Structures are given as structure tokens and as C-alpha cells.
Amino acid sequence: MPVALVESLDLKGRGVAHVDGKAVFIDGALPGERVEYLVRESKRSYELGTLTQRLRESAARVAPRCPHFGTCGGCAIQHLEPRAQVATKQRVLEDALWHIGKVRADAMLSPIHGPPWGYRRRARLSVRFVEKKGGALVGFRERKSTYVADITSCDVLPPPVSALLVPLRELVGGLSIYDRLPQIEVAVGEAVTVLVLRVLERPTPADEAVLQRFADAHGVQLWLQPGGPDSVRPFHPLDSPPLYYTLPEFGVRVHFSPTDFTQVNYDVNAVLVRRAMRLLAPRPGERVLDLFCGLGNFALPIARCGAEVIGVDGSAGLIERARDNARRNGLAAEFAVADLFDAAACAWLPRWDAMLVDPPREGAIEIIKALADGASGRIVYVSCDPATLARDAGVLVHRKGYRLAAAGVVNMFPHTGHVESIALFTRD
Questions:
Q1: Could you give the strand order of the β-sheet that contains 8-9, starting from the edge strand earlier in sequence?
Q2: Which of 62, 84, 99, 176, CA to CA, is 20 to 30 A from 32?
Q3: pLDDT tens, residue by residue, 342-360
Q4: Would you state the pLDDT for residue 345?
Q5: Where on the phi/psi map is residue 401: left (φ > 0), alpha (ψ -120 to 50), or beta?
Q6: CB 373 within 8 A of CB 427
Q7: Do 43 and 21 contact (CB within 8 A), yes or no?
């Protein structure tokens, strides 16, 4: 059995080692551990392995809290102490910035983190009726599998939502369309919890009565999605309060639809917005661009700080709701629809004094390339992928004359390998 010294974790929570010139990715292994492992797959430049024995154990190893850990694919690193998770993600960010972008931050920001349990206010649960399991399964998929994990609770979901997993199994099993309901999306607001049922066949009148009784009994609002995202409609009760979350420090309430993109972790998002505003330092008289602005998570606080803000996003639906959020909050903000992955659209961007970008995993390379040589505004970059942040940072520093003044991780998804971060770019 081969032996390896684990050096780090990758974005999937696997231990990374090097043996005979090959990178080895070992499920279940932690940095600093010396382990024996079983080779599952061997390629020319890397191997995939499974931990079989720990010869030297990490001091940061802990017993996973969830009884489903290891089977359920919702979490990858519950066996690593939460503070060590954050430190490991900081190392991943620093390594990506250097190895991909060839840049180092002048200062590393203190990590942003929050409660490690019950944080997940957004979730997409898979549903499958399995006769051999006694009925419907509702939860996340198993690790490395398309099967739905047989879970009865989930510690990263808010406790009231976790408590719904077993009743939801019973609900699905009691419907005539039990095999035509592949997904339930959860959206928890500050005044209501919404469950969106993806239905491939219209519920019968008897099904609708069952659904109404479930919603009333558990104090949730049910929505139905018979087709694409635009087909989502509230079902019962129709007089529920709206979905929203608040940013109390800025006196902002952000309304959203249950299938809109919002950050899953409200506690961490509030701290992230506060830090973004501190780094961006928007002032009255300045024009600030918020690119990939979504519902206005950053644009509305920027407007509250007194700056002239222009939010841009590729989704017309999100821009419509961003405008509505500005009206609801009594804020002056301009919003526009544009494809920020299109070079021509990025060249259109107006003059700016400061810019915030919060792109998806693909990053913001077209925006970065479109910056005029000699551009001098402050840039705050919020990232959900350290590799694309590092790539874009390399262009900003080496081709556009910026310096990476500060960077740090944001632990938006505890117990997973996801690394989110925030960075500040300036010019002297």
C-alpha cells in the first residue's frame, strides 16, 4: 500500500500529496497527515486515492458532526476543525494568486467567517422515489454519485428546514406524481420559508389538497415550477409575506424571488458587504460601477453611502428586481442590462471612480481587458473561484498597472471546499 505526506487540500476537500512526481488526490486525508492510501485511478500526471490508514494524524482532525458525512455529498471537510478550514482556504487563495497570477497581496485581510452550522439559507434538494428504500428520498446527492443520499437531517441547513426532510419524504410519497417531482428548492427569507417544487406533471386536485395541508401544517409557502425558471409561481398560501433579507448596517432590505441568486449565508454576506464598502470607500460625488450586480446586494449599500451607482447585470429579471429594490429602499441607483462576458459590452462601460465586480466562476476577464491603460479607479473584486480571480489579478497587475493591495478569504460555505474571497486593487 503506497504512503504519502499530505501537503494541502484541493477545492473538493481532498488531501493533495506528491508521490514519484505525480500529484495524488486522497479522499479523507488532511494536510500534515502521513497516510496509506488505495489507488482508485491512475493517470500519467496524477492519481486518485482513498485513505486506508492514518500513520500520523492531523491535530486539526475532528469527529464529523453529521452521521451522514462521507455518504452525503453536501459537505466535504467536516472532519477538519472549522478554524483550520478557514486557514486552509486562505492558503488555497494565496497559492492560486502566486502560481496562476504570479501576484502576491501587499496585505492579507483577516478571514470573514460566521456560524459553521445552520447557515445554508438556500439549497437545491434532489428527490427520488426508491422502492427498496421504502419511498421517497429528499436531500443532497451522494458523493461521486447521482443517487440521492438517504438522510433524515442536515446540520448545515437551518434547523426548521432540516426538520422538514422527513415530512417532505412523506409528502412526496403521498402524491400521485411521486415519480414526477425531481427537485425541491429551498429559499429562507427573514419572514417566510419558500419551497419550490419542480413538477414534471401537473398535480391532481387531490395532490393540491395534500400540498395545501402540508404548507399550512409546517408554516411554509409552496411554489410550483412546471417548466423553466420563468414558470415558477406561488401556489399556497398566496398571502404569505415576501422573501427578503436585510443589511441592517446600511438600512437596506433586499427582496428576491425563490429562484433568484442570493448568497446562501446571510451572516457572512452582511460582513462581506461591510468589508466591501470599507475597501471600496464610495463617497458622494463619485461614480461607482457595480458589475454583475444581481439584486443590488452591493449597489444598494453603495447608494446609501451617497455615491452615484450604476449596476450592470446580464439578467433582465434581476435588473428589474434591483430597480424595484432601489425604489423600496428610497435610493437613487441606475441599473442596466448588458452581457459582461462580451468584449463590446464591456467597452461600453461609462466613466467610473471605483468599481466593484462580483462575477460567477468564469471571472471577469473581458471587463479587465477592456480597462483603459492608465485607468486609476479603485477595484474591489468579490470572487467565488480563486483560479479565475488569480488569472484576472495577473492581468490587472502585470498589464494594467494595478497593485493587489489586499486580499482575503470569505468562508461562505463552511465544511465544503468552496473558496470565496475579496480583493482590493489600486493604482498609486
A1: 3-5, 34-42, 46-56, 22-27, 15-19, 8-9
A2: 99
A3: 998 888 888 899 999 999 9
A4: 87
A5: left
A6: no
A7: no
Establish if 130 belongs to a structural domain: yes
Q: Say what the pLDDT of residue 144 is.
A: 83
Same structural domain, 111 and 127: no
Instruction: Say which residues have a Cβ less than 8 Å from residue 209's Cβ, sequence separation at least 6.
Output: none
Are 289 and 415 in a shared domain?
yes
Cα separation, 247 vs 253, in Å, equals 6
41 φ, ψ (degrees, to nearest 5): -150, 135
pLDDT of 389 reads 98
Q: What is the pLDDT of residue 372?
A: 80
| Domain contains 104 | yes
Please check whether residues 408 and 282 belong to one and the same domain: yes
**Is residue 170, in this structure, part of any structural domain at all?**
yes
Collect the ranges in the chain with pLDDT lower than 50.
Answer: none
Q: Where do the H-state alpha helices sit in 120-265? A: 159-162, 165-173, 205-218
pLDDT of residue 375: 73
Same structural domain for residues 33 and 103?
no
Q: Name residue 7's amino acid.
A: E
Three-state secondary structure call for residue 51: strand
Q: Are 260 and 230 in contact (CB under 8 A)?
A: no
User: What backbone phi and psi angles, to 5 degrees, belong to 71?
Assistant: -100, -50
DSSP secondary structure string for all residues of 398-422: HTS--EEEEEEEE-SSTTSS--EEE
pLDDT, tens digit, 9 for 90 and up, residues 203-250:
999 999 999 999 999 999 999 999 988 899 999 999 999 999 999 999
Torsion from C-alpha of 341, 346, 347, 353, nearest 10 degrees:
-150
Tell me: do 130 and 43 sit in the same domain: no
Range of the domain at 27: 3-61
Cis peptide before 31 (omega within 30 of 0): no
**pLDDT value of position 91:** 92
DSSP 380: E
Amino acid type, 211: L
Residue 306, pLDDT score: 96
Q: Is residue 409 part of a domain?
A: yes
